[in-house]
Design goal:
Chain lengths: 845, 297
């Protein structure tokens, strides 16, 4: 039995801050004892192992802001820490009461300012607060019916002073960030620390999300049996995309972007392959001012034209309603206490840290005296502006800051530097005490206001790091509220009461999603083709057949299909270029020079899969994520070598096969899957066409080796050997690769599948005509089937004219089919354009 | 003075437009010196749906969608208005301008309906930033204790004098700082510069869009459709006097030739015609305004 070490034994607790775990006398707070015991039982080695496990899990799930971002150091907001923050039910209850009071208050303020404006009439709040806000928009008035909530989801950032009292450092009322990460943290923590989790009797999060769901359902304007709720994300380019997708999937909502939405007859609709489908509740995760280009910023192309009018008519409920960002302004804190009294909500249970407005005090002298003990913030919160700490500035910078503040004092507020409690963190094989920032969430639900029993905890070695934004900090922890939850261990959504309408169809696929699936299919296939070509080329190199390779058609096939720079195969230039042993492995990682090459295609795959992430299985996503990680140019000065790259390619091709297998076996046969497969089949046929043309189009120096290579590239060597052993004959090879419908790699096989898929695409019910895409698919299939393999391979000089004619025809037809499908199904969303309002000539005196 | 106003806006698209969302503000607005007797808005092709409502400033807004293919859009706003003209007090009797100054952080007071409305026109708005250059320019006219209307009229005349009317120098999106530096522009620029000057001194000012009846040169016939959309500024001169309209482009108070449509903080709040269409391509715009005097019965 190994002697267990007390992980907390040599711990120094900073004396001037409240500590979450230890009381002032050094005693562990009672509610932390179970966790302490459990951590000591687990021990450092096991703890490290589990942390590694968590890191892997997070990496796999792509807990990052930019799953699509392929630049170096793809950002992840924080690493995960296995030690949670603990609250007893009683102490959390106090926080919850304060949070709910604030949420109620913020909602009342919004209802008032965008409605009757009694706060201004009665002189409780200066008009500057509303009309001076840089993002004030007259259009936000009257968007919701009187007495209806503006604010459904509210978050507050909390801190604790030395006495352990809670303070709010910021309010978030637009689309509070973090709920998705709270869920993710919980999944990992509960799994990682299962024994401790059970011992601590942690309250579950699921009930909050159930309330959220039933609240949103209740908001549906009509008595819909199946209200349609959508999460509106800015898209995979945005910082919150992971969360948007995560929440949408968790709650079973449709994840939409602006291009998926349309307004017709003053109704909000989702563009799907099956037509336009109404949306009843829109959970907005985009900026207020980008909601509607007709009424708001006409400069930005984003947004849904006409949305605000739909809201005014009560035909859709948007949460939180546009204009809700108003109450995020730090300036509000100056008046909050009085406002609470005005609305008869009593004293603030959870106050904001002291806030001074420069608008109403003799600024210069006041500032000079306190400059080193405060932070300065804009009075209105526009985006994630960091606070300024004058103490950290040089004398010159201090002066210019002073001037800026004095020029428009009303635009700034000052706050004391935030005091933070410390909490245990597992870092560098030991427990340390780090400053903590906690974000709590409140729902304005059907049953009243409800606080999430948990939160987003961020910790950082340097406390100021935590002030900057909700994503700043070094680590994130789960927050455990212990005991006394009345609700049974609720299972996750959707498992709600009431009957359910069973669904089988998938016609409600947004056109944009279908588009992403189609191009995902094309790009993954293109990447695979590139990998196979390169692997064959490298094998030839390794077999010391460089002499053969020089003239080899494999390189030409690579160049023709965009996987290799064409310069590399020109005779003459070859000598001046780096040897093939360098340039070939390099081509795998090259994206700038090779926009159609392997790495570029993989980049597209990652971007597109991010866009349809809510519809890909976690396993499929994981494979793509690993592929992405694996295929980055190795660090260091030494170029990737042939052996390493070949090994890498073996793994890559294996993973791609795994992805294809998952798609084949685990994907429901919805339209999404169909578009993915159409994309894949079209691309595979195109790649094969190019390859066959290069390998068999001419007979010059056509050896058994060339034929063998072609079979290898198109993954049909095994089948060929079974039939013909090592007798490499062009006609036999061409028959297998072109005509053989039983070979899943042959062109004929792809064309059969394309026809099958195309026949399943939705038609206009009004007409019974055969569509263009159907005709094109049939024409190609017949073109191949009607040719005789022997005659195709007839030569004239060194050419095979019949074969080349067929292949060139196919190439054109495949391109046309791709365009027809895009035009008919995918590009549903023509660009929105603005009418030039009174323009240069019309405007006048 | 009674006028019949016909304002037509015609868009022609190169290729068919499947959907367009439009929001127009083209109905003349009542105020103490103008009465709108009747108004009719016609849209061709007929809108698929439409809504009429007032915005937060009280302007009448028409919102409509056209959801079938069209290659042209024709909007005609016809109305009959009676313009009584502003009745102004003698300038030196208006209050000293400082008494109307507003401080963002002034003491909190109760606001009546009018004060609340005025409060919305004190601050920077999307097209009108408040920078010190405007205040400096204005101060020459706003000497201590000077009656506000006297100072405002002088400022209006200075803008008329210092600025050159030049439709080629600016466009609808030119920032006013740029027009100010150029000392050139058109009515929209001049109105917004005047507003910026007034607001930067702490006064409340709003932007007015409307029409101006143009008089034909002596001896010539009046040309139908040659009148123009116009813009000017309005200053709040205290509860006694109320809002007073100033036209820096024409060097004076607004008179019987001005027909207001709407007011807001600046151009962006009351763009006469705002729309988004789905479809490809360029469009041609043709606007004509006719302000025709009607014989009184």
């Amino acid at each position: 039995m190994v002697q267990t070490r007390d992980l907390f034994e040599n711990l120094t607790v900073p004396p001037d801050a409240y500590n979450e775990m230890f009381a002032r006398d050094g005693q562990v707070r009672a509610n932390w004892l179970a966790l302490q015991t459990e951590l000591n039982r687990v021990g450092p080695l096991e703890l490290n192992r589990r942390m590694q496990q968590a890191a892997d899990q997070i990496a796999n799930h792509g807990v990052t802001f930019n799953p699509y971002d392929l630049s170096e150091g793809a950002s992840r907001p924080w690493s995960f820490d296995a030690i949670p923050v603990l609250y007893t039910a009683e102490s959390w209850q106090q926080v919850a009461v304060g949070l709910e009071q604030r949420a109620r208050l913020m909602d009342l303020i919004l209802q008032d300012l965008w409605g009757p404006q009694n706060l201004l009439r009665e002189g409780v709040l200066p008009p500057y607060f509303l009309f001076g806000h840089p993002a004030y928009q007259p259009s936000y008035h009257g968007l919701t019916k009187l007495g209806h909530h503006h604010l459904f989801l509210y978050a507050a950032d909390l801190t604790r002073d030395a006495q352990g009292k809670h303070w709010v450092t910021g309010d978030r009322t637009r689309a509070p960030f973090g709920l998705g990460y709270v869920l993710e943290n919980r999944l990992i923590a509960a799994n990682l620390m299962l024994d401790a989790f059970q011992a601590c009797r942690v309250q579950r999060l699921a009930k909050f999300f159930q309330s959220l769901h039933s609240t949103l359902l209740g908001l549906a304007p009509t008595n819909e049996a199946n209200p349609h709720i959508a999460v509106w994300t800015k898209g995979p380019g945005s910082r919150s995309f992971f969360e948007d997708a995560y929440l949408a999937r968790y709650l079973g909502y449709t994840l939409v972007q602006a291009d998926d939405l349309a307004v017709r007859k003053n109704q909000l609709l989702l563009k799907t392959l099956g037509g336009l489908v109404p949306i009843h509740v829109l959970w907005r995760r985009v900026n207020d001012e980008h909601s509607d280009p007709v009424e708001l910023s006409s400069q930005s192309a984003g947004g849904v034209a006409g949305l605000l009018e739909v809201m005014r008519s009560g035909n859709v409920v948007v949460i939180n309603s546009p204009g809700s960002r108003l109450v995020e302004s730090p300036l509000l804190s100056v008046y909050l206490e009085k406002i609470a009294q005005f609305f008869e909500l009593g004293d603030l249970q959870l106050p904001t840290i002291p806030t001074w407005w420069f608008g109403d005090r003799p600024t210069a002298k006041w500032l000079q005296m306190r400059l080193d003990h405060i932070m300065i913030r804009p009075a209105f919160r526009m985006d994630n502006q960091r606070p300024i700490y004058p103490a950290e500035l040089s004398t010159a910078d201090k002066q210019s800051l002073l001037q800026r503040v004095l020029a428009t004092p009303e635009a700034f507020v000052a706050q004391p530097i935030v005091e933070r409690s410390t909490t245990p963190v597992w870092y560098a094989d030991q427990v340390q005490q780090w400053p903590l920032a906690l974000r709590g969430f409140v729902l304005a639900g059907q049953q009243g206001f409800e606080t999430l029993p948990g939160g987003l905890a961020r910790v950082a070695y340097r406390p100021r790091l935590l002030d900057q934004s909700p994503t700043s900090g070094e680590k994130s922890q789960d927050v455990w509220i212990q005991g006394h939850q009345l609700a049974p261990a609720a299972s996750l959504l959707p498992s709600l009461t009431g009957p359910i309408v069973l669904k089988r169809s998938g016609a409600e696929l947004p056109s944009r999603v279908a588009d992403s699936f189609f191009w995902l299919g094309r790009n993954i296939e293109r990447a695979e083709a590139g990998a196979r070509l390169l692997r064959v080329a490298l094998l030839l190199l390794q077999n010391e057949r460089e002499g053969v390779l020089d003239g080899s058609r494999v390189l030409r096939a690579m160049a023709e299909s965009g996987h290799l720079e064409p310069d590399l195969i020109l005779p003459g230039i070859r000598e001046t270029l780096p040897a093939m042993t360098q340039s070939l492995p390099n081509s795998l990682f090259e994206s700038e020079q090779l926009p159609l090459g392997f790495r570029s295609s993989l980049d597209h795959v990652i971007r597109l899969s991010a866009a349809v992430r809510d519809r890909l299985s976690v396993d499929a996503w994981r494979i793509l994520h690993r592929l992405d990680q694996l295929c980055r140019r190795p660090d260091g000065p030494s170029a990737p070598d042939v052996t390493d790259t070949t090994e890498l390619l073996d793994r890559v091709i294996g993973m791609m096969a795994a992805f294809a297998g998952l798609v084949a076996e685990n994907t429901t046969r919805t339209l999404g899957w169909r578009f993915l497969d159409i994309g894949r089949r079209i691309e595979r046929a195109m790649q094969s066409v190019t390859c066959l043309d290069v390998m068999f189009g001419t007979t010059t120096a056509q050896s058994g080796l060339v034929i063998e290579s072609a079979l290898q590239v198109l993954d049909s060597l095994m089948t060929y050997r079974l039939r013909y052993l090592t007798h490499f004959h062009p006609t036999a090879a061409c028959d297998l690769l072109l005509h053989d419908q039983s070979n899943p790699r042959s062109i004929a096989y792809q064309l059969d599948l394309i026809e099958l898929h195309v026949n399943h695409l939705p038609s206009d019910p009004q007409t019974q005509e055969i569509r263009t895409d159907q005709r094109q698919a049939v024409a190609m299939k017949h073109a191949v089937r009607m040719t005789d393999p022997e005659r195709l391979m007839q030569t004239r000089g060194e050419q095979r004219p019949a074969l080349r004619k067929l292949l060139q025809g196919l190439e054109g037809q495949l391109t046309e089919l791709s365009q027809t499908i895009s035009g008919r199904y995918l590009v549903h969303a023509p660009l929105q354009r603005h009418l030039g309002s009174i323009d240069h000539t019309a405007r006048a005196d | 003075m009674k006028y019949r106003v016909v304002h037509t806006t015609a868009y022609r698209y190169e290729s068919s437009i499947s959907v367009s969302h439009n929001r127009v503000i083209l109905t003349p607005r009542n105020c103490h010196w103008v009465r709108c007797l009747w108004h009719r808005l016609t849209v061709h092709p007929a809108p698929t749906w439409s809504i009429k409502r007032h915005d937060v400033f009280g302007n009448l807004v028409h919102v409509f969608g056209i959801e079938e293919g069209h290659t042209e859009l024709l909007v005609t706003a016809a109305s009959q208005v009676e313009v009584l003209g502003q009745s102004l007090p003698s300038l030196h009797e208006s209050p000293p301008w400082e008494t109307l100054q507003f401080h963002p952080a002034g003491p909190l007071v109760k606001l009546n309906e009018e004060m609340l409305e005025v409060a919305g026109f004190h601050f920077a708005s999307p097209r009108i930033p408040l920078v010190s250059t405007f205040a400096e320019y204005a101060r020459t006219s706003f000497l201590p204790q000077r009656p506000v209307l006297e100072a405002a009229l002088e400022l209006t005349r200075r803008i008329h004098q210092d600025f050159t009317y030049d439709p080629k120098s600016t466009n609808v999106n030119t920032p006013i700082e740029e027009a100010f530096a150029l000392r050139r522009g058109v009515c929209q620029d001049f109105a917004q510069i005047l507003i910026a000057c007034l607001r930067s001194l702490g006064l409340a000012a709003r932007y007015i869009s409307g029409y101006l009846r143009t008089l034909p040169p002596p001896g010539k016939e009046r040309l139908v459709g040659a009148d123009q959309s116009h813009a000017w500024a309005s200053l709040y001169a205290g509860p006694e006097i109320g809002w007073v309209d100033l036209d820096p482009t024409n060097n004076d108070w607004c008179d019987h030739n001005h027909v207001p449509i709407a007011w807001g903080r600046d151009y962006t709040d009351i763009v006469p015609f705002r729309g988004v269409f789905l479809g490809d391509g360029r469009n041609q715009l043709k606007v004509s305004v006719d302000v025709c005097p009607v014989e009184s019965d």
